[in-house]
Design a protein that fits this description.
This protein is an alpha/beta fold. The chain has two domains: 92 residues, GMP Synthetase, Chain A, domain 3 (2-Layer Sandwich), CATH 3.30.300.110; 174 residues, Rossmann fold (3-Layer(aba) Sandwich). The chain has eight helices and 13 strands. The chain is globular, with a radius of gyration of 20 Å. It binds S-adenosylmethionine. The site of S-adenosylmethionine has 21 residues, from helix 4, strand 8 and helix 6.
């Protein structure tokens, strides 16, 4: 859930008098992960925000969103293969595990132990709505399962969704989420590295989803190999600068296709979100077919 502009303004307004000049440190957006039963809010404060401002913002936020029981501030960039970051507890109490509900999909997770972004819900629905009955779908870098579960939920006639994840904590949540959503048998969680685990599905998939903008290109060979001999669709995520959003992603896909005697037709190319100032997470949907 993203904070609505109205609430944001209200927060600033609420705090204007108490904070005076320091109202400039009130973050311009934040995430709430969880549900009515309990949620965690995650804020990103501008550099130099004083502690009393952080506390005031967190307390105001908990007054506006009664389900938020714990407020965390981002304390580092995302790091490492698991794409985790450090957090600082600003206010509230209780654990960091929540059940987030996204378009009817229940996702149990702990944002301090696994990657999860509630801002990508629309993107997941967009990908899921393209899946056709009878498809076998490979979701690489599956996290706690949001893409795989959204696909199986939106397309109940999907043959199978294979979901590979390296982080044991995320895998454990994914297994639990498959059960929570009653999608056993449809979603197949796999613990391990896409480099080695994808082999079991070489030549077996109609569609491959690659939601790891930092480095998905290193796994494009595996994605091509997973597709059926007649080809299929790859949803390829990549980071790109504002001045040239798609050329590099197109080039990477075309190079891999050429190496394998395949052709690539771009079905769609879009900006998913802003990663950093003037750097965007983009997604290219590519139809891969044998060259005639
Ligand atoms: C950007 S997160 C996306 C997670 C999930 N798809 C989502 O949208 O919430 C990337 C995930 O890929 C996992 N990962 C990184 N390298 C991997 C690899 N070589 N094989 C399998 N999973 C990997 C990380 O642990 C992380 O959970």
């Amino acid at each position: 859930m993203r904070l609505r502009a109205g609430v944001r303004v209200r927060l600033k307004e609420l705090l204007k008098e108490a904070l005076g000049e320091d109202v400039k440190y009130v973050p311009s957006s934040f995430d709430i992960i969880g549900s009515r039963e309990g949620a965690v809010a995650i804020l990103e404060f501008p550099e130099g925000a004083p502690d009393h401002v952080k506390r005031a913002v967190a307390e105001a936020l908990m007054r506006v969103h009664r389900n938020v029981r714990l407020v965390l501030a981002k304390a580092s960039e995302r790091k490492g293969a698991f794409r985790l970051r450090e957090y600082e507890v600003i206010a509230g109490e209780g654990g960091t595990e929540v059940v987030h509900v996204e378009h009817g999909v229940k996702l149990k997770l702990d944002p301090t132990k696994v990657y999860f972004s509630p801002r990508e819900a629309t993107e997941r629905v967009r990908v899921a709505s393209q899946v056709k009955p009878g498809e076998t779908v490979m979701v690489m870098f599956a996290g706690v399962g949001p893409y795989a579960l959204m696909i199986a939920k939106k397309q109940p006639l999907v043959e199978k969704v294979v979901a590979i994840e390296l982080n044991p904590e995320a895998y454990r949540y994914m297994v639990e989420n498959v059960r929570l959503n009653k999608l056993e048998g449809k979603v197949v969680p796999v613990l391990g590295d896409v480099r080695t685990e994808a082999k079991r599905w070489y030549g077996a998939c109609d569609r491959v989803v690659m939601p790891l903008p930092k480095g998905a290109h290193e796994f494009l060979d595996r994605a091509f190999l997973c597709l059926k001999p007649g080809g299929g669709v790859i949803h390829f995520y990549h980071w790109a600068p504002e001045r040239d959003l798609f050329s590099e992603a197109f080039r990477l896909l075309e190079r891999e296709a050429t190496l394998r005697g395949m052709s690539v037709r771009i079905l769609d190319a879009r900006v998913v979100s802003e990663y950093a100032p003037r750097i965007y997470k983009v997604c290219v949907d590519a139809l891969v077919e044998p060259e005639v």
